[in-house]
Each structure stands twice: as C-alpha cells, then as structure tokens.
Amino acid sequence: MPPTQEPPALAVSRASAVVQDANFADSVFVSGLQGPTTMTFAPDGRLFVSEKNGALRIVANGQLLATPFLTLAVDNDNERGLMGVAFDPNFASNHYLYVYYTSIAGSIHNRISRFTANGNGVVPGSELVLADLPTLDAANHNGGAVRFGLDGKLYVSVGDNAVSSNSQSLNTPLGKLLRFNPDGTIPTDNPFYATATGLAKATWAMGLRNPFTFDIQPGTGTMFINDVGEGGWEEINRGQAGANYGWPMTEGYFTNRPGLTQPFFAYPHGAGTAAGNCIAGGAFYNPPIPAFPSAYVGQYFFADYTNNWISRIDPNSGARSLFATAVPGPVDLDVGPDGALYYLARGTGQVGRIAYTASLPPSIAQQPASTLVSVGTPATFTVSASGEPPLTYQWQRDGVNIAGATSTSYVLSAAQLTDSGARFRAVVTNGLGSTTSTEAVLTVTSNKPPVATILTPAPGATYTAATHLLFSGSASDQEDGALPPSAMTWSIVFHHDTHTHPAMTDTTGIASGSWPIPNVGESSANVWYRVYLTVRDSVGLTHTTSRDVFPVTVPLTVTSVPSGLQVLMDGRPFVAPHDTTGVVGVVRSVGVESPQYANGKFWAFTSWSDGGAQSHPFTTPASAATYTATFVETSGGSCYQIQSERTDKWLTVDGAGKVVAGSATQAGGQIFQLVPNGTQFKLKGSGDAFMAVVTNQLAMSANFSTGEAFTRIPCGYGGRTRVGFQASSGSAPHWKETTPDGPIQSGDGGNGGACNPADGGAWEAFYLEPVACPGGNTSPVCGNGTVESGEQCDDGNTQSGDGCDATCHIETSGAGCFRIQSERSDNWLTVDGTGKVAALGTTQTGGAVFELVTSGSKYKLKGASGAYLAVVADQLTVNATLSTAESFTRHDCGLYGGRSRYGFESSTGTARNWKENTLGAPIQSGNGGNGGICNPTDAGSWEAFYLEPATCPPPGP
Prior knowledge:
By secondary structure, this protein is an all-beta fold. The protein has one helix and 75 strands. The strands form 19 sheets. Strands 29, 32, 33, 35, 36 and 37 form a six-stranded mixed sheet that branches. A six-stranded antiparallel sheet has the order 60-59-56-65-64-63, with no helix packed on it. The longest helix has 4 residues, at 91-94. The protein is elongated and about 120 Å long.
C-alpha cells in the first residue's frame, strides 16, 4: 500500500499537462470546480460542467458563474451524483437539455431527465423524468454519459452497478448502452426490443462494465464507448447496434468468442504511458473550424484518469499516438467551438485547455492568485500562458524584476511580515511579443496555522465491509485556542490499486461522525480508505491531516472436482483451482457453467461445497475458505450425422475446418455430438473441436467454452427429425447452404425466413440421423430432444413432466395445464354439455383447461372435472378414468407465427390424428381424423393445435 500522503496545499493549482508537440500549449481555462464529473459545450458556446454534488455549472466568456444553472438533490456517495449532460439537437429553439443523476426520490437510483433552459438558469418545475433506472445496490459502476446520435435518438451509458451478471441480462438496463426517443419512449427498432423486458428494451448494445464516457463523431455517427476494466484491460468499443462486448466473460482482446464483439482498441493495466487503469474521457476532433493541423482532424482523443495521460487514435487505422502527459486526473474531454481540446481535471477541480499555438503571441490563460501565508512559510505564485514556443518568464515584485525568477512559478521560500502587501506579477515573452499578468498580493500574518488531529480511527485501524467507519478529531490554534466543529471539514476517499473513488464528500461542522462501508461494489482486496480532516482558523490559515484504514482480508479458493474445470468468480471465468483474496464482509459470487468439456470428457455440475445454487452469492467469511464445485461425468449428448434437406448431402468438414454439405452418402458424413447447453446446443466434431461461426461460416475451430451455442428449431414434416439451427447473433443467423458445396452460412450469412425446402430464400432444414458416438458411446441419450428407440423422452428437457427424468426414468407426473387453440378455426377447445370436446371458445379465457399427464412417451389429457379424455365413436370425449383414458402421441408441427404447433394422434384407427372435420362440431380422431401432415391451409390434412400454458384447477376434495 502507498504511504500516507498529505493533500496538496490549498493554493490554486495550475495547468501542468506536458504536450508532446511543442507547438501545443496547455493552460487553465477555469478553476474552482468541486468534484467535476463531465462537461459539454452548449450550441451557443457556453461550457456546462457537472459536479458530483448535483450542481450544473456554467462557464461563460471564460468565467465560472457563481450561481449554478441547476442544483439537483442527489446521492453523491462514492461514484454517485450528477454525471452527465447533453443538449437537444434543436436546443436553439426548444431549449431542452438532458441530465443523468443519482436521484433520492423514493429509492436511490440513477435517473435520466429533461429540463428546459432559460438563459443561464433552468425553468423552475420543467423536469420531465424520462427513465428511472433500477434501485442501486452498489455505489460504483454507474456509467452516466448522455449523447445525441445523428439519428436524433438519445444514447445513455449505464454501468453494471458492480453486479457483473447484469451486463448479460436482458431483464435489466444495467451494463448497457441505451437508446431512447427524445421524449423518453423506447424506439421499437432497438435491436433487443422484442426479447428484452421492461426498461431493458432500450438496450442498444450490452456486455459493458462501467462505460463512464462515450462520444459520437460529427458527420459520420461513429460511436466509441470507453469501458473501464476490471482485471487487466481498458477498452474502446466501437458502438454497434446489437453488439455484446463480452463483460464479464472476457475483457480486452479475445479469440473464439462467437457472438461477442472485439474492442476496437484495448490497453493493459500498469504504469507508464502505454498502460493505465481507468479510461475516463474521449472526444472526436471534428470542430466546425479546425484549429489543429489536418493530421489531427477526425482523430479520437482519450484519457486515462490514473496514469494522467491523453492519447489519440485513428478510427480507421487504429494507429495510436501519445498526446499529453502529467494531466491531473482527467475525467472528460471535449472539443470546443474554438477548435481547442478541453480536459476536465478531477484532481485539481479545473478545466484545462490545450491549443495549437504556432505563430501566436503569448497569452495569459490563468493569472497568479493572491495568497495568505503564516510568517516563515513559503508563498508560491504561478502563471499559465500559451503562445508559440519557446515562452520565457520573468517575475516582478512591485514592478521590479526578481533575479533568477524565470519559470512558470515563483516561490518566496520564507515569507516575512515585511513582505506583507508585496505585489507579484509575471511577464511572458516569445518571438512575437510579450504580455504581463495581473498582480497578486501577498498577505503575511504572524498567526500560526492551526493543528488538525485525528483521534479515531486510530493508527493501524482496520475495517470489514457492512460496518461503519467511525471518525473523530480535534482542532487547536495557537491564537484562537480550541477550534469549534464549525472549523472542521471531513472527507473520505476510497483507494483502489493506483486510483481513487470518492467515498464521503466534504462535510463541515462536525467533530465526529460515521460513514457506512458498503459490502457490494469493489471485490478486489488491494483497497483502503483514507480519512481527511482539514481545519481552518479565524484568519483563514488551514492544516490538513489524514489517516489510512486498511481492510481485514482472507484467502479464498474456488476449485472443482475433478480439478481443472472452469469456475466463475464474480462472473469471470478461471481454471480451477483459482486463488484470490477477499475483504471480510464483501459479497462475492461463485458459479459454474454446466456441462463442461475437459480432457475428452463431459462433466455436469452437481453441487457446491457450501450448498449454494449453481451460481450464487456469498459473504466473505472471517477466515480462509474454499468453495468446491463437484461435477460428475456425463455422456454429453447424442451423436448424429446431419443431412441437408436442400441438397440431400451429408455434412462433412473440409481441409480448412469449414462445415460443408459434401458427402453423397451417409457413411461419408461427419459425426456431430449435440451437447445440451441450457436450452441450446453446442456441436462437437472430431477430437476436441467444437463448432463456431467464423466470418458467417460454420467452422470447427473452437473449444467447448468458446463454441457457439445454437438454438434448435423444430421444422416438422414427415417421420424424420427435421430441424433448423440458429446462431446467437446476426441479422440472418439460421444455417443455410447459400452456395452449393460451399461452407454452411450462419450469423449474417444465413436467412431469417422459415425452413422450407422449396423456398431458396428461406433458411434450411436438416435431418438428424442417430449414430453411435466415437470412442465407445453407443447410442443417443435421453434428454437430447429427439425420441429414439427405447427412450421415453419427448422434448429434451429434464424437468418434471417431460416424459423422462434426469436419468431417463419414465415419469408419471403432470406436464402442466394448457388451453388448446385450433389453428384451423382459431377457436379454443371447450367441453360441451355431453362431454364432447369442440372448438367453440372465441377467447382464450373461454377455453377449457386440460392437464397433460405423461404416460411414457405419450400423454393423457385430464379435464377440469377430473375426468380424462377418450375417443368415443371417433369423437374426443371427456368421460374416462386415468386407467381407461386414451394415450395420445404428441407430434411437433414446427413454428408458425412464432408459436409452437402440435398434432395429437390416438393409438388406433386409420385416420387417428385430431381434426375439426366440421367447424363447431366435436373434434374427430380414430377413424375420423386424417393421416396427412398438419397444415392449416390444407383441408385434407390433420390439424395442428397451439398449447397455451394455464393455471391448473385446484384438486378436488
């Protein structure tokens, strides 16, 4: 841990950035900001700066206005507060601006609101709340940037709130880049609108950790998103609709991650100017009138908050160049209407300005400030200037040059009472002229500075999460005696590795207090808190002291049985065993993916040593702990050879590892093992190769963890298993042999239509033919989604009611209750007064509820009365008991209109499938149905029905 450090003296800090090109100069544009977070130029040239405490400040004509434009009631704990502002593209006429802040209304949550401006103030009562984000658990990872795109939509970056699983969930807007209409409604063309829920429908891109800033390039609309990293990388992601940037599965560059989008640029954690720890600002250099040389136009400038540098990168070539160093904690960048690059320096509460100064005379950007010092202490005066280099400086006292005082600062090493009232100024000169600063007056007092003393926390104090950090102190002054609490100001800063986060903001007027230490947020152990106490005496002299409080930590191990499988720690994947260190009391999480493939075998998760679910949180205990995930070997799934319906050829793998329909005979086809992965499947070929989508072609180039998980869609038709496969991303993600004998297409190369062998524009159906797996597996397995010889499964799930349990034993439980709709007439099945089943209900609620009870691989149907369905005189009749009820085979008729369609077949008769032969009459079966294929447009075929889940009626007495 770094040693205890005193904060800088309270004298005004000056611009300190060192620009690599001597033709540029850095200067202070404005000072006096309190906890600045972001800044944005208004269309009229005013600069609006957000402060954490909820104040939105205006800089007009180079001056920070005393009265804020707007002051919001915010929670400013840690990284919360006022975090973003954007101006409506039609601001000149409608005066709208948009802000992102942490609201305390109801619960603590981040809010997006629109306000109306009236000059340098806000119109009272004009707030229109556009979106209230979920209640916050952690105080960090808020995101908070807002920008308008060229499409007129409002884009908002939102952090994961330190819960990494949020980034991959379409049930929450956290960890996303959101897109709204200007009135706060959600555009229906958002890429996840149909699949996400609630406010997550606003998701435009996902898989982000803490996208604190982003920018959109004028003219092109190119978006770069700056995502702050966790373990090793900082990322610039090119904004793309529907993109998934991979957090928490990956950060930085990666290979074989189907469905994820690589960062445009990533740099590693570490020291120096080629590394960093917190990407926090970015801006495209495309001002209306460029003031930088042409080589800079169109470049993207970005900054690292902890390593204090600014770099630029070419959005086309990716070529990166260092631009400036020694920038004091940059958190935001912007390009001004004057063509200069502005940076927001959190470390000094200033806005800096970097201008191209070739052929310009000197200009004073920041004047020296008057100062008060105690006798015998140093007094420092600093000036900031720009102009064509080289610049020379000459300090003057009372109008007379001071020998040797030729730098940007002048220090009077030990001020005396006789120096009080002296006036200091600087003359700045270059080859094109000179200019003189205003005079700063030195005041020297015989009073001594006060003394601040921190009583608690005591030296060496430690903390655990979910407790309170207690602090107390005293203040004394040689002249004033004991100072009251009103002279004391406390603050707490949270340190993580080499950078800091605000914890408790400046709090004045108390001699003691407490601050709640959160148990969610930063999971790392290289953290600590620094408590500051500043006291001020009656004449304005100050003294600051600090005390560091370090965490109580314990070693943690996450492992697996057998060893070497993948485990998830806080959502990030590691090979077990994985050792880490935790802060006692912090909530962490462990998890595993199941099944997994390792050393030529498949493994299924069975339990955690602490009894938790497959993925679950835990509170870091007070002593060392090991969390062990136990797996058992599993068959991994059924093996098949796969035949293209369009060409009748069998899939093979060519010499380049691409999957093609290349064999005219089944014997020449590749054997693929379909491995269940949740509700999807991964496909394993020969050896350890798994299928991925590479440049929209199926390729056997991945391992199990990086292989693509495909959705298998039933296509119906005939007695063979006919299915389509869909990748996880792309505009046309379904498999299709677009070019005969060429690689099978997917991603953006397939087609979004329905499987139809007669339609060349549709995606393709494939036949799965069961075969023995290589290496000793002899047959397909229960639970693969296809009924095969000797099996009792019907739909591939291992939940109660699917026809088989997890070990392929026949189940006898119910498969759930449903209302059943006739596809032919659109009416819902009801039971008439004679117990006959007919399609009579015109509304879903008017339909009868039937319970499907598994009977081996078939089903018996139970009505609400408790009686079961039988076939009487070729009509469906509810009059049987469980033992006398008819067992029906359920056939998959494929998808139609996004809904699953099924046909039902009785056990006897020449035309056994259900059919509404006469509309409104009892449903026919046995010898009254039809032996054809379910087809809603073919009156001669048997019928398909839709099953809509319903609540089962309560059991009878």
